[in-house]
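Hi U.,

Before I forget, here's the chain from the pilot set. I'm dumping it here mostly so it's searchable later in email.
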Amino acid sequence: MSEKSLWLFIFILLYASFCFFWGVRGSRYNSDNPESYYLANRNVSSWVFFFAATAATFAGLTVISQTSLVFHDGFQYAGTAFIAITVPLGSIFFFKRQWMLSKKFGYITPGEMYYDYYQSHTIRIISVLATFFIAIPLLAVFFGATGYLINTLTEGFVSRELGMWVISTIVLFYTTRGGLKSITSVGVVQSWLYFLTIITLGIIIYSYIGNLETFGKSLAKVASTNISSWGNTNGYGGGDYNGYFALPGVIQWVAGLGKNEAIGGPWTAMMIFTFTISFMGIILSPSFSMWSYSAKHPKTFSYYQLWGSAVIVGILLFIFTTYQGIGASLLGANAEINNNDLSINKLLPEVSKENHTMLIYHIINLMDEYALWLTGLLAVGIIAALQSTSAALLMTSGSIITRDLYKTYVNKNLTWEKEIRAARIIMMLIFLASLYLATFAKPAMVIFSGISISIAFQFLIVLLGLVWFPWITRGAATFGLIIGIIIVILTETIGQQITGNRLPWGRWPLTIHSGVWGLLFNIFVCFSISAFSSITKLDKSRLHRDRFHEFLNDYMGLHPSRTKLRSFAYVITLIWLFFGIGPGQVLGNNFFGEPGAGYEAWILNMPSIWGYQLIWWIFGIGLIWFLGSQMDLSTLPNKPIQENDIYKKPEEIPAEDNYIDKVGTGYGWILILIGLAIFSIIFYVYLV
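Structure:
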């Protein structure tokens, strides 16, 4: 065994020990009732939610893919980092209201909430099926990536399959034993490892490049050529620019990937807009909607939305992963740049377009000559990032299938002791199904994982009806959801395989993401049926739904002093959507200097599109703060929720002792300051 492998196993052992500790400790808190096991007793504090939810939402989905795709597609793909804004934007509109309903009525799973509101078994069953087909492919991808990492860093000493099966059992143990209590506790450390790993990898690339001026001048030389995975934009986006440094227009009227592809690259302004909006599906899915029920109070969400997602994840994606992906091209990973003598150094092995996901492993290997212990630590950081999202999916999907399928339709008289046993068995079956997919059906794993988030995005209409628009009927929400999922399938690769490649379009026709294609048809069907039901007065359940909305409006109303800001909120949101992630993005191609004009012409000493993205990211942070705090979308309810309280009867809770009056943030900010101090020391050591 090599010394590098030894360090890797040492850090894995330390990490596994921590996870097993919380698995055992968490099991002490989940034996009383379903709320304690599934929702950590609805008492997850602000700082724990801040760290754990941030890692669960983003870490597994971005830790490997973001750097590698930026390397492959350039700055046009870097625009997808706006998920750091659109994901919390989606949670702002839904998390607080879902929390209020779960607090009042004691919901544990979203399926229970959907059924209670819509009185529909169909929507409940669809939510179970969607959860199943969302969780298993994604879990397979995360587990497979873990095994591949172990195999690569041990230089084949441990096979991908063995590493995947052994390391992934860590997730199974602490998830099934400790429930959400263990997941959130482990998630705090996983988030630290995720942050530390991305930042350290960025610092490694920076240290080899030299400084920002060298970086900028080297990029300017590349920008004056046509070296790009997609060639030049040929007039799309304002000029004939290198596709690595510009968006190829607002939209392109093409059939999609696999048929006739966009000129200059697929990431048009419309593609980035629809992709980042569709990525909301991760928090709109039943799996992550369930997380909103676990918070101690809704102000908790504001920390996750503003500081966790918009600020920290924004820094990681817009700055560090972008620098890693682009910087790797200048350090030997790009064969074309090497052949034209435009690289700064040739430290990294050349990475082909087909194997770009290997990039992050090669960056880690740069530390072999200097600090083998750091190689092991970074590897465990990636494993922790993958497992943070894996644990969240495994826990919530198992819970949903147990309560919304098994307990509801198979064994209605299930006692709690038998229910927790059934939940653990179902989680284990999901775990085994994921590993089987990752081991024996890799093509299916890739195909199904590609549609999972887009399918989850279709629940947007269900949630809109649930917490915002009472006129959306049961039938409208049901048929809209079904049609939306069908359209997603037909605008993805799987649609071509099902139809024998007979469809006239490919993947993402017109450079519009499948999630939005599904939503467009979803909205059309839903609104048409709702309008017809209203005109013909066939909607017999409107009074039932109105009671939910009356409760929400009564407890959530905007503070009187800020009602005049409502129109302003609409305006600034639309402006940001248009210029930040919408058609206005193409202005960034040359707003701060044309890509090929040379370094001296770049006003910000960086490619114009990158500077433009950074500026609108900062504006996006302000938008999240304004909507969450000033528009009361992520603040405390305007009065205590006491009726039908799931812990005590209303008369047993004095007003002065309700949760709304005692919502301290605990020790979270102390830990955040400690974390910032650690990051500051790292920057000082490496940059000074």
